[in-house]
Amino acid sequence: MTEVFFYIFAATVIGGALGVVLLRNIVHAALGLIGSLLGVAGIYILLSVEFLALVQVLIYGGAVMVLILFGLMLTRTRELKENLDGDQKPLAAVAALVLLGTFIAAFANTEWPRDVGQITTVPFNDIGNALFGRWAVPFELLSGVLLVALVGAIIIAMQEEGEQ
Questions:
Q1: Is residue 139 part of a domain?
Q2: What's the pLDDT band for 80 if we cut at 50, 70, 90?
């Protein structure tokens, strides 16, 4: 049964990611990203790391995506107007093939651990110490970057209103 749920969550992740890349409406693409992030949370639950699943849903699926949607709505960009096919398409295809070959080589040459029949748990105290110790400054820097992005979207939206 676990394998069935894994395939469902994997299909959700891949479908949402394809929606992000292929949909022309930016708001719909952002909703595809939410679906993809929720699928990742489901995979975390299958891996018995409920804390990461909760953080994935609350922080990424909730707060960050609300911030992104507000930014998109404030800029009033609904659909891409220009054609995205450019001169870099052959170079991008070569880069994608090189990246695919690198991933395949890395997967083939890696010693993967076998299932030992035990679930590895990490105490919440260790997670809290890492979040509020080692990762406190990067977390605060990221929140500042997101705040600047939101303020920038508001300024751009205000300039567009003044021009009309």
A1: yes
A2: low
